[in-house]
Amino acid sequence: MEKEKRIIIYTDGACSGNPGRGGYGVVMLFGAKRKEMSAAFKLTTNNRMELLAVIEALSIIKHNQFGIDVFTDSKYVCDAIEKGWLQGWVKKGFKGKKNVDLWKILIPLLKQFNIKFHWVKGHAGHPLNERCDELAVAATESGPWAEDTGYLAQQ
Asked: Exposed/middle/buried for 115, CB within 10 Å: 0-12, 13-18, 19+?
């Protein structure tokens, strides 16, 4: 029996200052195909970049017939989803929570796909996690920097 094909996504966010300039990095794998993405923002937070990396990766997937594994070094993102915190936040109307704009973008994507989140320790030598960090840091340092309008709106 052939092993189920899955889309593998590694994500990372970075911020120089928190808040400060930020960026995210993504590495996506499907069979022999590989795609890397990154972007930078003028003023944001690390948690926003961690979330945005996942959102941007899931947003470009066109079909939902494959399972997806997302690897992140963000306990914030991983635990919110895998431990069910996000469901509680939704029930309470996100009272007292930050990054509501991004969580509201992510929720329909989570419903659209069969996704399993995995936490990996950051800066521990995992090649794909390290590559995401390189992409995120390079974006943070070199731009071009977009406005994180969601961050500005919550201020």
From this structure: buried
Q: Which of 23, 25, 133, 148 is catalytic?
A: 133
CA–CA separation, 73 and 47 (whole Å): 11
- Of 25, 50, 148, 150, the catalytic one is 50
Per the annotation, the verdict on 123 as an active-site residue is yes
- Residue with token string 């996100």: 94
Please state the CATH superfamily assignment of the domain spanning residues 6-149 in this structure: Ribonuclease H-like superfamily/Ribonuclease H (3.30.420.10)
Max Cα–Cα distance, the chain, nearest Å: 53
Q: Catalytic pick from 12, 23, 25, 150?
A: 12
Quick: pLDDT tens for 37-83: 999 999 999 999 999 999 999 999 998 999 999 999 999 999 999 99
Q: Would you call 50 a catalytic residue per the annotation?
A: yes
Q: Does the pTM of the predicted model rise above 0.90?
A: yes
pLDDT at residue 4 in the model: 74
CA-based R_g, the chain, Å: 15
Structural domain boundaries of the chain? 6-149
